[in-house]
Known about the structure:
Oligomer: single chain
Radius of gyration: 15 Å
Strand content: over 45%
Structural class: mainly beta
Helix content: 10-25%
Distance between the termini: 39 Å
Amino acid sequence: MRFSKQLAIFILCTHSWISMLGQETIQVEGMTFAYRIEGDVLRCELRAPTNGWTGVGFNSKNSIVGSDLLLFNVVDGKATSKDLYVKSLGNPMRDEDLGGKYSIELLDALEDEKSTVVRFVIPLDSGDPYDYAHELDKDFWLILAYSIEDDFEHHSRVRKHIPLQLKHRE
């Protein structure tokens, strides 16, 4: 079997990034969320078995409502992201439209025939009331989701809620 040059670079980059992150990796339903705490930011990698959008959310309760929701897609090789707050079921709103701020530093994104991988940085506490304020050793809910479509208006095919605590490891 021959690998394309793009696929070989994709595999090399994703492997080295996961190794670099290494602090914590959560896997569920084919999705992977890896993170590393670096000072006052959370460096993240999100992977999903889709060519549609993928997303991660953070909430103090086991609900999509009230969550800080970050969505990503790759269209024609160009990555985009949305920083959202879920006001009610089916009503995610851009932080900026609520008076908050866009808090994602999108580093890169890769898509192959079977999956999408995005790498990004977010502040542990941005000061934005629509962003989740991450605290070490405090329980929260991690929400992982993906869609089969790139359109952010399209509902998720899979969404999982995972109880978690951020731990700082050297």
